[in-house]
Amino acid sequence: MTDCVFCKIIAGEIPSRTVYEDDQVVAFWDAHPTAPTHILIVPRKHVPTLNDLEEGDPILCHMAEVAKRIAANLEAARNGYRFFINVGPEGGQVIFHLHAHLMAGNDFGMMIIKSSIAIAILLRKIKKWIFGK
Amino acid sequence: MTPPEHECLFCDIVQGRKSADVVYSDEHVVAFWDIRPARPIHILIVPREHIATLNDVPEDNHILSRIGQAAVKVAQKFGVADVGYRIFVNVNRGGGQVIFHLHTHLVADKPG
Questions:
Q1: C-alpha distance from A109 to closest chain B C-alpha (Å)
Q2: How many folded domains does chain A comprise?
Q3: CB contact A36 to B (< 8 Å)
Q4: Would the CB atoms of B94 and A104 count as touching at under 8 Å?
Q5: pLDDT at residue B6, rounded to an integer
Q6: Is A99 a catalytic site residue?
Q7: Which of A29, A56, A66, B19 is geometrically suited to a Cys-Cys bond with A17, CB 3.0 to 4.6 A?
Q8: How far is the C-alpha of B32 from the C-alpha of B93, rounded, in Å?
Q9: CB contacts, 8 Å: A107 with chain B
Q10: How many CB pairs under 8 A join A and B?
Q11: What pLDDT, in 10s, does the model give residues A84-99?
Q12: Strands of B85-91's sheet, edge to edge?
């Protein structure tokens, strides 16, 4: 695809900070990271979205395997990470070349715990305000 | 293969010992509503085989591709395949994983 930014990165026409590559995928740092570790894993072949993968295509297995290898070598990802794919405009997909995000360093587990505690405290305050002591 | 003494909520659901609101199933995966949905559509896609985390999937195992295929079918069933959805896997506690049976979240807003 001549006007696809990921195809251009893969072809070396646009620079990127590559962390891994093989004959099937290239992985590089997201240019606009939203976590301390934010890496994109991109198949070399141009497939617009997850919906367009042919039944039986094993590329998703390989993308996940690459995510595992990258995470194992990155200190920030050793405690855990998130592997996700955005599909379509309302799914947050911006570049229409299938890609997976590997994100780490935000301690998603602690985020869940902290937000649960914050919600519980807020609900207790609201209840107190409405019903008194 | 799940050892007999193994205790896992998702194994119990997959094997029918505990109930869940199942939306899709095939020989490899079962998909059901998350009991605490974080979005209007929040489905969990779970392999029938017990694999603790994404890190434990053997290199030659094709379960991720089967999960991806199931995700597309679930998205089509809910009418969000073209509009958009997200699939994600939390890996280990630091990644937000709570139940240690590999599972993929599919989240989306209601279409229209």
A1: 4
A2: 1
A3: no
A4: yes
A5: 65
A6: yes
A7: A29
A8: 22
A9: 94
A10: 128
A11: 999 999 999 999 999 9
A12: A18-21, A25-29, A37-43, A100-104, A81-87, B85-91, B104-108, B41-47, B29-33, B22-25
Q: Which of A87, A102, A110, A114 to mutate to test the interface with B (most CBs of B within 10 A)?
A: A87
- pLDDT (tens digit per residue) in A11-70: 999 999 999 999 999 999 999 999 889 999 999 999 999 999 999 899 999 999 999 999
Distance CA A58, CA A69 (A): 17
Query: Between B56 and A125, whose confidence is greater?
Result: B56
With beta carbons less than 8 A apart as the criterion, state whether A48 and B81 touch.
no
Closest Cα of chain A to B82: distance in Å?
6
Residues of A in contact with B82 (CB under 8 A): 51, 88
Please give the average pLDDT of every successive group of 10 residues along chain B, which has 112 residues: 69 95 97 95 97 94 96 97 96 93 95 70
Residue A87 belongs to domain with CATH number: 3.30.428.10
Domain limits for position A90: 5-106
Domains of chain B: 1-49+103-112 (3.30.428.10)
